[in-house]
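Sequence of Succinylglutamate desuccinylase/aspartoacylase family protein (Haloterrigena salifodinae).
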Amino acid sequence: MRVAQLGSGTPEIAVVAGVHGDEPCGVRAVERLLDERPTVERPVKLIVANEEALERRVRFVDEDLNRAFPGDPDAKTHEGQLAHRLVEELDGCLTFSMHSTQSHGEPFAIVNGVSETAKAVVPKLPVTAMVETSNFAEGRLFSEIDTIEVECGLQGSETAAQNADRLTRAFLTAVDALPGDTIRSDLPVYRLTDVIRKQDADTYEVFVDNFAEVEAGDPFAAADGDTQVADEPFYPILMSPNGYRDVFGYAAEKLDVLTAPPAAD
Ligand SMILES: [Zn+2]
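Predicted 3D structure, token representation.
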């Protein structure tokens, strides 16, 4: 784990990259901040989490770090120990953690609850949605640390790396660590309600677009040609044919749209 800091004093803000070793976009954003060393108005902790997995270009070494929290100093796995060290480093910090997916190119935010902090910060980020995943928080970083996760785009893409950079700067501006203004936009909010499992098969297909409502009766995915049909309407989120080993993704409900206040003249 690499830990660095911008500014002096005890940080209450942290930016975390590389929770997953096969998602390099956030690492680029952190390295750029370390190269440029912008003058900050509040100290910021910068962390590259799973360096071993990043070096091997794998999601994890022993187990998924974002299912291993709170971790344990005596854990038998690399990620179990790393989770514990990461929680110690991030104690007291509002944390911004960057990910990328195989399911959706547009950036969106993932939070453990629609808290006042989430409502204040997330609409100021260049994201198209906020997804609340409190039903599936177990083992994730935000079960231990106040965290805003962002999905920056498609895994390994140049666009995801550029998005990670823009998202990080918008986050640091929104929390008054960097100077300047952020643009606030209307933001739909979703809550994950169900896991969409997939059976063991050779080929997987997904027929729907993430964040676009699926109607009851619509076919939405297939495993070896065996089609799954929606019993009731839902919004697919993090859905992809091969992104995860045993699930296609998640079903969500739409909760709300956070509207931007009218712009001042
Ligand atoms: Zn990830």
